[in-house]
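Q: Got a minute? One more chain.
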Amino acid sequence: MDLRSPPRSRQLWLGAVVVAVAVVGLFVYSFVGTVVLGLFVYYGARPAHRRVAERVDSRAAAATLTMLALVVPMVALVGYAGVVAFREFAAVAGPQAVETALNALPGDPRSVSAFLREPDALVERLGRIEPLRSRLTAVATTAGALATGLLHLTLALSLAFFLLRDGGRLDGWVRERAAAPDTAAYSLLRGVDADLERVYFGNVATVGVVTAAAVLVYNGYNALAPAAVTLPVPTLLALLTGLATFVPIVVGKLVYVPATAYLLREAAVADAGYLAPAALLAASFLLLDLLPQTVLRPLLSSRTLHGGLVLFAYVFGAALFGWYGLFLGPLLAVVVVQVVAHAFPHVVTGVPIDTVADGVDIGSDPVSADAAADDGDPTDDEATGGTAGEAGDRASGDAADGD
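A: Always. Here it is, folded:
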C-alpha cells in the first residue's frame, strides 16, 4: 500500500512550512542582537553547565544553577558600579545638590498634598522651564534606553537558559527528524556547534582572566604608589577593563590609557614624579593587553580556527553589524569555515564526509566533535532517551520480533 501523501497535500504542507520558517526568520531578524547574545551566553556557559549537570540529576536545576552563577555576579557588578557612581556624583555635586534642585522647582514639589490639589497647574509650570524640560527629556530618553537594554538582556538570558535545559532534546529532535547522525548535514551542525563553543567560551575565559589580572594590577599599584597618584575605585576600573576585552584590538586600552592619563595629570599637579604612572601603563599593556591578545585568547579560542580569522571576525563583525557583531561575526566565520571544509567538498565531489574531515585543520572535525559532545554532556541521553541510532536499532529489533 502506498502511504505517500498526494502531491497537492504535500504542496500545502510545504507552503505551511515555508510560512512558519518565514515567521520565525522575521522574529530572528528583528531581534538578531538578542538572539546572538543569547547564543553567546549559552555557548560560553555550556562547559560549566556540563560540569554542573554531572553532579545534578535535574536538567532544570543544572541550568538554573549555571545561569545563577552568571547573573548574580552581573547584578553585583551593576549594583557596585551604581553605588560608586552615586558616591562620586555626591562627592562632586556636594551635599546641598538635592536641596538646590528641589528649591529651583516652582511651588513646593516636596508637598504631596499641593501636587494632588493642582497636578495640572504644577505640570504646566514645570513645562515652561526650558532647561528643566530638556533635562527631563534627557532623563526619560536614558531611562527608556536602559529599559530596552534590560529587556533584551533578559530575553537573551532566557534563551540561554532554555537552550541549556533543553539542548539535549533539541539535539535528539535533529537526529530523529531533520538530520541523521550519518549525514553530511548533521556533521556540519556538529562541527559548527563544537567551534562555537570553543570560540565563545574562549572569549568568556579571556575576559575572566583579564578581570582577575586587572584587580591584582590596579590594587597592587595603589598599595605601592604614592598617595598623590593612586587610582580611584581600582576594583571598578578592573571590572571595566575586563569588559573592555570584548572590544577587539582596542580591548583594555579603553580603560587603562585614560586612567594613566589621569594619573599623569595628577602627578604633574602634585609634583610626585611620573615613574609610578609609567610603570602602571607598562604593566597594563603587558599583562592586560599584549599577553591576553597574543597568547591567551588564541590558545582558548583558536584551537581549531585560525587566530587571524577569529580576530578579523570580531573586528569586521563589529564594524558591519554594530555591537552585536562582536557575537555574530564569529558565528558567521564558523559557519563559513565548516561549509567550506566539510559540506562543500562533499557536495561537489561526492567524497564521504568522514574522508573529507580527515586532514582538515581549520575547523572542528564533526566526527570527533560528535563523540566528544556525547561523552561530555550527560544530559543528552537523559533528555532524548538515547541517540537516534539507538532508537532505530530498538525499532528494528521490535520489528524483527514482530515478524
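A: The two ends are 18 Å apart (CA to CA).
Q: Perfect, thanks.
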